[in-house]
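Good morning C.,

I know you're traveling, so I'll keep this short. The sequence:
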Amino acid sequence: MDINILNSEIQEFIQKYIGTSISKLALQKNPFPKVEWISILNQIEAKTKAKDKLPTWFSTNNIIYPAKISIEQTSSEKTALYKSSIVSGASLIDLTGGFGVDDYYFAKKIKTVAHCEINSDLSNLVQHNFQQLDAKNINCYSGDSLATLIALNKKWDWMYIDPSRRNNAKGKVFMLKDCLPNVPENIDFYFKNSDSILIKTAPLLDISAGLLELKNVKNIHIVALENEVKELLWELHKGYSGAIIIKTVNINKDKTETFEFILNEKLELPHFSLPQKYLYEPNSAIMKSGGFDEVSSFFKINKLHKFSHLYTSQGLIDFPGRIFEILHTLPYNKTEIKIHLENKQANITTRNFPDTVESIRKKWKIKDGGNVFCFFTTDENNHKIVLICTKIK
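The tokens, ready to paste straight into the viewer:
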């Protein structure tokens, strides 16, 4: 951490060039020879990334940023705030502190927070930032988190872990044992230090795969931001062996959508019907959860098809996802498509349909955008259909 980066003239320069192309700036001569040009450019790039994601950091003076990738990988303030709603008590230890966004929000709920970070430079940087943010109840510890746990030798009300993927772990879907720290390998030791553990994983982790590796799971939170799933949160409680609750959360600018259900609960078979007046598309958190029959049961709406994951009703209901009014229901054939969609403009979605959006656009010369929304899907009779809709929400 180069403290010279906090020079007032350098800070003014960084602020001035927020949002500027770094590749163009890099060609300029460094106006501050006492500080490496690459370091200044990194601050501009990272702070630009933080503007929307971390507004508290962005608007606080004398914040020092790590590499841009660390900003990209850290929690947003909105998801960190949600995580803080899960924990309670007097103490929490974060074994994988990183840039410290989660801990800043934990510290608003918890009396004492410990931030553990194996990278000493990042640990020092975060400690400096916490001082600027006036977060006085967070203690930073540099080094291996297991060694820190042993050295502190105390029982914590909560433990938080955000394992990172090892460099040699290949494949899109990875196991927790392929991450650092190795949670499945160390879970018994962790439970000696805390009865409540919150684990964050990337959305790519399959829920059933995670459950094979973890024990004492009580709740699984699927957190989406503006309809993009950002993280899975696994809530473990020592000795727990009851039902597992899936909690889906979609944080929007004006409203947070929530829906929860008991995993593997026996339900009545969902009802199916042909398209009625309204069409419902679940948000991405629900799509990740796989709770498609649960949606039908809870909201008492019909599914179009077992694998379409679209729902319909005659009367309008409030729903955690997009809502449309169906204007036309067409069979998918050349005559109908030529009349209604060829050479026109529409937003296209496919669900349980053999053709891709790209191939449909190309085949029928349909431009993207506009106020018309088309769903290419399959109905309960296995017929390929097109729903032409207008968006309500």
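Safe travels,
E.
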